[in-house]
């Protein structure tokens, strides 16, 4: 017997009983008591009504089910998902910046950030004191910070791993950690102008960090997961986008050379009581920058109270009139166009020439000088005589070809163009002054790059800050003068550092060098300041087979010496020795010859 | 017929319980895997930190200072350096242990 039959049987019995006990009553009435006294008559609609009510309730439930399951399904599914699914950020790590030998110049290290929930925060006085000490603030600063917001307060962002561990060990409630990364710069202030820095969000702000932001940054990924009650990830759902880590950037910088260059220019600035100084060291064959240092500098890890003076990458952003350092270019072009020979005699007496209401003078009268001697003794008048042999257009093209007035082809923020006015607006006197380096301006970097013409047998090589893919390969450049001319000019440049030249102090032990010193009054407003100088030296070593170009600039030396040959040349000499030794270049001259020329007094150069 | 049904019921119940067990196990293992992956990332970044720490301890500044002050070393100048060619160096080394 199935349950259906039983229920049917029960239903059948009940009315039969009612009928038997109270005959005459409505056959469909339900009796509620066994005693006839208590039996009351119920109207038949009542049971119908109840059944209808129950039916209606069922309909309501059905409708609700329909609403939840079909009509508004998405809303409920979404609400459910919010409660168990989480989207996790996959942080891409920022690429490293390494030097040419793979030594790290910048890398990302974990640095947790600490935040507090002031409502939850509980600590007694001793704990507060300890916490403040760990965070490097005073007790009052900590209290102020906690009072500044009700829900969320950064206690300190990007602290050292150890500090974070110590804070966690205090075991205070209401203090939480967020995993973050910060940049670390092992080379510190020595390389900071090249490497630059990032902001707290890890975005490049200066230097290579900014120039290579795209390569370094990488792309963050995301991942959908299901988390359980304990916060553990138990399942991956949906598509996950993998994080793409930033690429490493390889700079052409050599840390050792860079450090030495920085140290040497720092000392030179201190020795000469100067305002600032810059150094550029170029690989003469590939145009790679081996070092680029400036003083004053700053520590990239601690950038509070930074001044523009410290931040400025002077070698690239400061322009000045290149002065005597352009004379070799004038001589080279005069030789190239067969207007002069190295031993052609030029009249420079009496050391002063009036031209267009302007006096062009040498620091002292020289009489008749050959072209070589003009370069060696840095005669303004001799250089002017050669310069006036050219058409203005010719000279403009020469300067443009070697990169003056042209933005350096270098991926680096802030590199300046310098100034070279179009030749059509030149007055004759301007052409005269321009032939010894006044009336145009360039950065130290541009001057160093221009000297690749002499170092590379007449070809200009664009300088680069990134390591070239093919080491030791000879880079083809823009031909400016013939190899023979470049060789002749190199010999002239080596005379500058010899006896009777303007910079005997540039000599390096064991290596033949050649270069050109420069000294200038500083431009102030419209005129020239009388007691403020700028001294520099640009040179090539070894002169017999050029490997490096070193450019040194010292701003406002004020310790009694201001000639480029006295102030900048010694820095050049030290750098050449150190750098060539680091590169493993064999000395090309007998060491003993060096000692003889040491005490020869420097020739005063014209500026 | 009833027996078969009972058998199937038991099988069903067993399979259901087994499913619960397996999915629990898989979640547990996945959580472990995730933990291990996190740890790997942590160790990698720690490694990176140590590498850069190591280099901060070996900057040219420090090396030079230590070499000069503690070890009393001097910079080699060309005057006290003997340069030898690579080809000759091999011969010299085999003959009398030539140095550079």
Describe what this molecule looks like in 3D:
The complex is a heterodimer of chains A (607) and B (100). Chain A folds into three domains: 69 residues, no CATH class; 162 residues, Penicillin-binding protein 2a (Domain 2) (Alpha-Beta Complex), CATH 3.90.1310.10; 323 residues, Beta-lactamase. Chain A is of the alpha+beta class and 607 residues long. Chain A is 36% helix and 20% strand. The N and C termini of chain A lie far apart (126 Å). The longest helix of chain A is centred in the N-terminal third of the chain and has 28 residues. Chain B is built from three helices and no strands. Chain B is rod-shaped and about 110 Å long. At the A-B interface, β3, β9, α10 and α22 of A face α1 of B.
CATH fold label of the largest domain in chain A: Beta-lactamase
Largest pleated sheet of chain B: none
CATH superfamily of the largest domain in chain A: DD-peptidase/beta-lactamase superfamily
- List how many beta strands of chain B DSSP finds: 0
Q: Strands of the biggest beta sheet of chain A: in what spatial order?
A: 12-11-23-22-21
Shape designation of chain A: elongated
User: What class, by secondary structure content of chain A?
Assistant: alpha+beta
Beta fraction of chain A: 15-25%
Uncertain segments of chain B are 96-100
Topology of this protein?
The complex is a heterodimer of chains A (607) and B (100).
Chain A: H1 3-21, H2 44-71, H3 73-84, E1 85-90, E2 97-98, E3 104-110, E4 113-116, H4 125-135, H5 139-147, E5 153-156, H6 161-170, E6 175-178, E7 181-184, H7 192-195, H8 207-211, H9 213-217, E8 221-227, E9 233-241, E10 249-250, H10 255-271, E11 276-283, E12 289-295, H11 308-311, H12 314-317, E13 319-320, H13 327-336, E14 345-347, E15 352-355, E16 358-361, E17 368-370, H14 371-377, H15 380-387, H16 392-401, H17 428-434, E18 442-443, H18 444-450, H19 452-455, E19 459-460, E20 478-479, H20 483-496, E21 514-524, E22 527-541, E23 548-555, H21 564-567, H22 569-583, H23 593-596
Parallel strand pairs in A: 2-10
Antiparallel strand pairs in A: 1-8, 2-3, 3-7, 4-5, 4-6, 8-9, 11-12, 11-23, 13-18, 14-17, 15-16, 19-20, 21-22, 22-23
Helix pairs in contact in A: 4-6, 10-22, 13-15, 13-20, 14-20, 15-17
Chain B: H1 2-57, H2 60-69, H3 86-96
């Amino acid at each position: 017997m199935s349950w259906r039959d039983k229920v049917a049987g029960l239903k059948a019995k009940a009315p039969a009983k009612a009928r038997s006990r109270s005959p005459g009553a409505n056959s469909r009435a339900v009796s509620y008591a066994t005693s006839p006294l208590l039996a009351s008559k119920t109207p038949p609609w009542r049971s119908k009504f109840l059944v209808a009510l129950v039916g209606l309730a069922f309909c309501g439930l059905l409708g609700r089910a329909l609403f939840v399951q079909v009509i508004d399904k998405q809303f409920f599914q979404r609400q459910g998902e919010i409660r168990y699914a989480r989207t996790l950020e996959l942080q891409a790590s920022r690429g490293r910046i390494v030097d040419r030998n793979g030594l790290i110049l910048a890398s990302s290290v974990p640095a947790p950030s600490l935040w507090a929930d002031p409502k939850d925060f509980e600590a007694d006085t001793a704990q507060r004191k300890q916490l403040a000490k760990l965070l490097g603030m005073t007790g009052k600063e900590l209290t102020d910070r906690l009072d500044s917001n009700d829900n969320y307060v950064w206690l300190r962002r990007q602290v050292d791993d150890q500090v974070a561990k110590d804070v966690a060990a205090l075991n205070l409630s209401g203090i939480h950690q967020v995993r973050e990364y910060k940049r670390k710069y092992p080379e510190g202030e020595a390389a900071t102008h090249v490497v630059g820095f990032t902001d707290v969000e890890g975005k490049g702000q200066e230097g290579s960090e900014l120039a290579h932001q795209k390569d370094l940054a990488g792309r963050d990924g995301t991942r959908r997961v299901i988390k359980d009650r304990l916060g553990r990830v138990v399942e991956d759902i949906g598509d996950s986008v993998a994080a793409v880590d930033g690429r490493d950037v390889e700079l052409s910088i050599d840390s050792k050379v860079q450090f030495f260059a920085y140290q040497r220019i720092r000392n030179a600035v201190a020795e000469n009581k100067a305002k600032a100084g810059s150094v550029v060291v170029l690989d003469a064959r590939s145009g790679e920058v081996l070092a680029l240092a400036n003083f004053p500098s700053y520590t990239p890890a601690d950038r509070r109270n930074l001044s523009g003076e410290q931040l400025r990458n002077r070698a690239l952003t400061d322009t000045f009139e290149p002065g005597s350092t352009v004379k070799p270019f004038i001589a080279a072009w005069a030789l190239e166009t067969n207007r002069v020979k190295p031993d052609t005699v030029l009249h420079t007496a009496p050391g002063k020439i009036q031209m267009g209401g302007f006096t062009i003078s040498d620091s002292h009268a020289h009489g008749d000088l050959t072209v070589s001697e003009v370069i060696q003794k840095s005669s303004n008048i001799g250089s002017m005589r050669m310069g006036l042999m050219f058409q203005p257009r010719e000279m403009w093209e020469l300067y443009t070809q070697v990169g003056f007035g042209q933005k350096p082809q270098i991926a680096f923020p802030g590199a300046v163009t310098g100034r070279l006015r179009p030749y059509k607006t030149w007055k004759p006197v301007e052409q005269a002054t321009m032939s010894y380096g006044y009336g145009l301006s360039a950065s130290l970097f541009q001057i160093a790059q221009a000297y690749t013409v002499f170092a590379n047998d007449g070809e200009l090589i664009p300088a680069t800050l990134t390591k070239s893919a093919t080491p030791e390969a000879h880079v083809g450049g823009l031909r400016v003068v013939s190899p023979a001319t470049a060789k002749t000019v190199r010999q002239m440049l080596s005379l500058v550092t010899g006896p009777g030249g303007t910079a005997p102090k540039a000599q390096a032990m064991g290596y033949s060098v050649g270069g050109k010193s420069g000294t200038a009054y500083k431009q102030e407003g419209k005129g020239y300041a009388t007691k403020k100088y700028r001294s520099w030296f640009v040179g090539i070593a070894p002169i017999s087979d050029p490997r490096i170009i070193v450019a040194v600039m010292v701003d406002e030396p004020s310790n009694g010496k201001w000639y480029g040959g006295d102030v900048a040349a010694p820095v050049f000499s030290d750098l050449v020795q150190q750098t060539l030794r680091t590169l493993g270049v064999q000395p090309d001259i007998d060491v003993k010859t060096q000692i003889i020329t040491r005490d020869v007094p420097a020739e005063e150069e014209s500026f | 017929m009833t027996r078969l049904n009972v058998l199937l019921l038991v099988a069903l119940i067993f399979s259901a319980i087994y499913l619960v067990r397996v999915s629990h196990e898989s979640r547990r293992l996945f959580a472990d895997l995730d933990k291990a992956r996190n740890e790997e990332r942590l160790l990698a970044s720690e490694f990176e930190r140590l590498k850069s720490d190591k280099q901060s301890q070996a900057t040219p500044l420090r090396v030079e200072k230590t070499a000069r002050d503690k070890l009393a070393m001097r910079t080699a100048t060309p005057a006290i350096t003997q340069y030898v060619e690579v080809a000759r160096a091999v011969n010299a080394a085999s003959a009398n242990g030539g140095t550079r």
